[in-house]
Amino acid sequence: MTGTTAVTAVTAVTAVDLEEAGAVLAAEAARFASFGWMRGTSGNLSLVLSRDPLRLAVTASGRDKGELTSSDVVLTDGAGAAVGPGRPSAEAALHARVARLTGAGAVVHVHTVASVVMGQRSPEGLVFEGLEMLKGLGHPTHEVSVTLPVIANSQDMTVLGDRLEAALAPGMPAVVVAGHGIYVWGADAREARHRAEVVEWLLELELARR
Q1: Euclidean distance between CA atoms 83 and 40, whole angstroms
Q2: pLDDT tens-digit map of 133-166
Q3: Nearest-angstrom CA–CA distance, 147 and 166
């Protein structure tokens, strides 16, 4: 990256924008960590800061998610590569792809026990119906049937992104990565958080049923 390109990319999103996004992501991470969903340095979060060009604030790699500060965030481009200083989560490329595919403004990736277990037990996906909680995913009534896709894991974010794209299901803003965790997205951090809590509730319910 040339010096000119770097300056152009950073000025499109100001330092204040990035710091404000970092504060939001730190608060969200602390909440998820308190649930035991982001133990140690596991999991990652992102916020879209601009669409053209696509720029995201992504939690920095290797940080304790219960102790993040507003500076523990990295600016990335539409491919998930760092634009400014710091090293983003290794899964930043998948966050960027979700944002491109779905128009999401925020992406949550957490490692919950229920998602890991149910992803391994149900590689074909999980169907939920007749549940009031589905309203939390934007359905007008509970009288619907919704599938939560499950995809095989990969350390290659291009491969994993291809699998996620192929598995996207109507009315379900989430995907389980078998043996790994869940990705959930929304228009902003608040909506993504609410949806993550709903999806995790559904997974815990299914785990309890079995």
Answers
A1: 26
A2: 999 998 877 778 899 999 999 999 999 999 999 9
A3: 14
